[in-house]
């Protein structure tokens, strides 16, 4: 084993960096999970706080706001899965079919840029475009004699705005994974299909999609694992009190409980709940996927 380590020490040095990252930032914070079972006192610390068992869990599960935010989290993630998940697949296939390289590169650049923009900036753009009073879109509608649309102040228009903002921000970046998978497709399959008289749509259906099926299944399972977890930035920045019935999710609930109210025990309980349910979703979706499609991640 020692000669092998000496020979390939560069590879072990490279893998050590992500391992160190996971140990420090993923496994290290697990020590704080015990806060969920303690009456946490900031001055006494984790070790000095009193054990209370599952009392905090019972308190959280008795809260009406918890179930409202849980419902909203499931709803927004499920709608995101329906709207946002197919978008990068469709974009990747469209880019793969483009024959002009200069146009393909230009399209990829334009599509990737939103991923690198902060949600704070995106939120500002959304309010500039879709605000009720000063929004550009409503200004154009009013100039045409049409009624303004309450994109950000009524539930259903806000929901559509939220979903399609997410597609715009994430779809381009997601295409990278599918384009990488498409580069491994055997070109001879397309040539054989063309000789047999297959149309472009038939080649996409019978060659392109089956070729990226493992990637689609893997990403679908990972997305299902995040059905209970949701990013804080997007619903917090785009949401407001007028649409709080939809925009209030578990991440904003944890923020209010932990940072605004100082109830760190309750916030940790919700975080632990998300992690456990997320693990169950990943294992369950992986099991079902293996039974139905024969593909999985484990």
TrEMBL record:
<keyword id="KW-0472">Membrane</keyword>
<keyword id="KW-0813">Transport</keyword>
<dbReference type="InterPro" id="IPR000515">
    <property type="entry name" value="MetI-like"/>
</dbReference>
<protein>
    <submittedName>
        <fullName>Sugar ABC transporter permease</fullName>
    </submittedName>
</protein>
<dbReference type="InterPro" id="IPR050809">
    <property type="entry name" value="UgpAE/MalFG_permease"/>
</dbReference>
<feature type="domain" description="ABC transmembrane type-1">
    <location>
        <begin position="70"/>
        <end position="285"/>
    </location>
</feature>
<feature type="transmembrane region" description="Helical">
    <location>
        <begin position="159"/>
        <end position="183"/>
    </location>
</feature>
<feature type="transmembrane region" description="Helical">
    <location>
        <begin position="264"/>
        <end position="283"/>
    </location>
</feature>
<comment type="similarity">
    <text>Belongs to the binding-protein-dependent transport system permease family.</text>
</comment>
<dbReference type="GO" id="GO:0055085">
    <property type="term" value="P:transmembrane transport"/>
</dbReference>
<feature type="transmembrane region" description="Helical">
    <location>
        <begin position="9"/>
        <end position="28"/>
    </location>
</feature>
<feature type="transmembrane region" description="Helical">
    <location>
        <begin position="204"/>
        <end position="225"/>
    </location>
</feature>
<feature type="transmembrane region" description="Helical">
    <location>
        <begin position="110"/>
        <end position="130"/>
    </location>
</feature>
<feature type="transmembrane region" description="Helical">
    <location>
        <begin position="74"/>
        <end position="98"/>
    </location>
</feature>
<dbReference type="GO" id="GO:0005886">
    <property type="term" value="C:plasma membrane"/>
</dbReference>
<dbReference type="InterPro" id="IPR035906">
    <property type="entry name" value="MetI-like_sf"/>
</dbReference>
<dbReference type="Pfam" id="PF00528">
    <property type="entry name" value="BPD_transp_1"/>
</dbReference>
<keyword id="KW-1003">Cell membrane</keyword>
<keyword id="KW-1133">Transmembrane helix</keyword>
<keyword id="KW-0812">Transmembrane</keyword>
């Amino acid at each position: 084993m020692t000669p092998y380590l000496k020979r390939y020490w560069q590879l072990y040095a490279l893998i050590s960096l992500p391992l160190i990252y996971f140990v420090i930032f993923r496994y290290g914070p697990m020590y704080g999970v015990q806060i969920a079972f303690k009456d946490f006192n900031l001055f006494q610390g984790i070790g000095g706080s009193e054990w209370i068992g599952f009392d905090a869990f019972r308190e959280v599960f008795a809260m009406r706001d918890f179930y409202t935010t849980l419902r909203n989290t499931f709803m927004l993630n499920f709608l995101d899965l329906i709207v946002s998940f197919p978008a990068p697949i469709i974009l990747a296939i469209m880019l793969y079919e483009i024959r002009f390289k200069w146009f393909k590169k230009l399209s990829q650049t334009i599509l990737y840029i939103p991923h690198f923009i902060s949600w704070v900036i995106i939120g500002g753009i959304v309010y500039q475009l879709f605000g009720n009073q000063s929004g550009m879109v409503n200004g154009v509608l009013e100039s045409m004699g049409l009624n303004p649309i309450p994109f950000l102040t009524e539930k259903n228009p806000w929901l559509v705005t939220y979903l399609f903002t997410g597609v715009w921000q994430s779809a381009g970046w997601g295409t990278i994974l599918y384009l990488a998978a498409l580069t491994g497709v055997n070109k001879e399959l397309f040539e054989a299909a063309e000789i047999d008289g297959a149309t472009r749509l038939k080649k996409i259906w019978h060659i392109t999609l089956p070729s990226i099926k493992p990637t689609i299944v893997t990403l679908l399972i990972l997305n299902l694992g995040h059905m209970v977890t949701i990013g804080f930035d997007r619903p917090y920045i785009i949401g407001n009190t007028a649409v709080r019935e939809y925009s209030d999710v578990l991440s904003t609930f944890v923020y209010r409980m932990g940072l605004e109210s100082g109830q760190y025990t309750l916030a940790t309980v919700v975080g632990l709940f998300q992690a456990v349910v997320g693990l169950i979703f990943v294992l369950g979706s992986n099991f079902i996927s293996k039974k139905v499609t024969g593909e999985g991640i484990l």
